[in-house]
Amino acid sequence: MVSKRKTIETSGDQKLDETLVDNSLSFESLGLDQRLLQAISRQHFVRPTLVQAKAIPLAFEGKDILARAKTGSGKTAAYAIPIIEAIIRAKYNKPNERATRAIILVPTRELAEQCWQLVNKLVVFCGKLVHGVNIAQNVSDDVQRSLLSEFPDIVIGTPSRVLAHIKSSTLPVKNVTHIVVDEADLVMSYGYQADLENIQKHLPKTLQVFLMSATLTGEVNEIKGLFCRNPAILTLHEDEAEADADGGTVEQFMVNCSEIDKFLLTYVIFKLGLIKGKAIVFVNDIDRCYRVKLFLEQFGIRACVLNSDFPVNSRLHVLDQFNRNVYNLIIATDEADQITPDEQIKAEQVVPANNQSREKKSTKRKLRDREYGVSRGIDFQNVSCVLNFDLPNTSRAYTHRIGRTGRAGNSGMALSFVVPNELWGKHKASSLDTAKRDEKVMARIQRDQKKNQGGAEIKPYVFDMKQVDAFRYRMDDAFRAVTRTAIRAARTKEIKHEILASEKLKKHFEENPDELEQLRHDREVHAVRVQHHLKHVPDYLLPEAGRQSLVKDLGFVGMHKTQQNRIRRVRAIHKARSKSKRGDPLKSFKVRKHT
């Protein structure tokens, strides 16, 4: 069935040139409410970013907006600010009317939480007029119905949750004036097309639409035809001069290496402190997450894991602690981006009984949590480097991965390991099927970066392998210790801990917020035999540059136990006391009191 909005003529879409909007605009010149300006100032937004300077004035003109801008460019604030301003103005005209006026659709719970937090920060000084709720939280339906019964002005959630509440009449939409689809292409790729079509049928015919994405694909065009009426299309690329002035650049490098050398180079990079600051390591498989984590633990390098196995509360807590600098290294999967259309169709079909093999289980595992996403939209703050330990399957996924760094005017670096065809499969224990296509994928990525990302260049980076090979025997010891059994044990142990932690986050820590600081996600799993000598890097292994790059001198790490046996320690204490008593007769002299 063709929707009514889809029949609207869209041939008149306005593709705007960057010069139509003055990049020197200030928030004060936009005519915003003083309370909103005060909240913006509190967030240290000095001036509108490129997408904000273009989108906000067009939004005030009532135009539908389809914006393509790089991640970290401020797309969330670009639609949140005009929506909040419009709600404030509407409240002045009808102060007693209580109704939901804006719906923000996002693909993942993590992105819903992030969007909700930004909205709360922007309405902090006008909370009595405007308030929003997040119905993507992992809470019961009764709690969500209670939140919606107060008629919040802004509702944030995934399409499936929003549609469920619309159908149950707990979310009235007759007064909705704004709708946002954030990360529009990802919403479609997660299988929300039917939900969007059903939501559109219930919405009023006249409303303002915001479609936001870092890439424009055919999927985004489907949403445009479903919701928009002659939208203003903003395809934004910050020129090199502006990027240099703001410092918001991402240097991209690639390293051709074998599969086992990925582990060797990762060990050298993080142990010698070649990367300063916080980093995200992307892998393509959940087991791969734990293999890299256990491998790095052998050298005393602590890292936390982030994947779809974790409960929602734990994933949100990991993001929060990372942004507050509790730890500096995340090993993450974005397996949602690894699903191809063929795998999606295969997973939905009935598999014959004689073919229920490992392939079926792995496909189900990939599709277990479609509302999980790390590389898309999530605001990892102050990330210095993105390391593509495993190259993604698509150039679009690569764009979103490296978008985790170089955000909000900061500089960053992206380093990708590429396995040449002749080296794939040479080391079975470290092999991954996706690496077989690395050279073809990297060629597509390079073409896409030059064509669609402002002529960005991925430069080759060559390590001096003669110096790196000095660390190979240590890498071999650590890698052999990380067996499949150890990976399964670590994965089970970590998931059990996170499930318990998630329950605590939901109940106990609401009443005891101070104890939340004690919960860490980067502790050592100890599923393998700990080799203490690997944590120390001898001076003779270090090149001169390596010695200077070490953050601190670790000193000597002994081969014996650092803690003395408890019984021997007690005996030593008693022996010392007895010696002191024998040495001083007055201390051993006892007087018996007579009555």
Mean pLDDT: 76
CATH class of the largest domain: Alpha Beta
**Low-confidence regions:** 1-12, 17-21, 238-247, 336-368, 549-560
Major sheet: size, sense and barrel closure? Answer: 8 strands, parallel
SS-based structural class?
alpha/beta
Taking all Cα atoms into account, the compactness measure Rg is 28 Å
Number of helices: 24
Function: ATP-binding RNA helicase involved in the biogenesis of 60S ribosomal subunits and is required for the normal formation of 25S and 5.8S rRNAs.
GO molecular function, one term: hydrolase activity
Subcellular location: Nucleus
EC number: 3.6.4.13
Observed structural traits:
595 residues; alpha/beta; Rossmann fold; 2 domains; 8-stranded parallel beta sheet; 7-stranded parallel beta sheet; 24 helices; 15 strands; 42% helix; globular; disordered N terminus
Write the layout of secondary structure elements.
Blueprint: E1 14-15, H1 34-42, H2 50-60, E2 65-68, H3 75-93, E3 102-105, H4 109-122, E4 132-134, H5 141-148, E5 154-157, H6 159-167, E6 178-182, H7 184-189, H8 193-202, E7 208-213, H9 218-227, E8 232-235, H10 240-246, E9 250-256, H11 259-271, E10 278-283, H12 286-297, E11 304-306, H13 312-323, E12 329-333, H14 341-348, H15 358-366, E13 383-388, H16 395-402, E14 412-418, H17 438-452, E15 458-460, H18 465-468, H19 472-481, H20 484-506, H21 508-511, H22 544-549, H23 566-583, H24 585-588
Parallel strand pairs: 1-8, 2-7, 2-8, 3-5, 3-6, 4-5, 6-7, 9-14, 9-15, 10-12, 10-13, 11-12, 13-14
Helix pairs in contact: 2-3, 3-4, 6-8, 12-20, 13-20, 16-17
Domain Helicase C-terminal: 249-466
GO molecular function, one term: ATP binding
Organism: Lipomyces starkeyi NRRL Y-11557
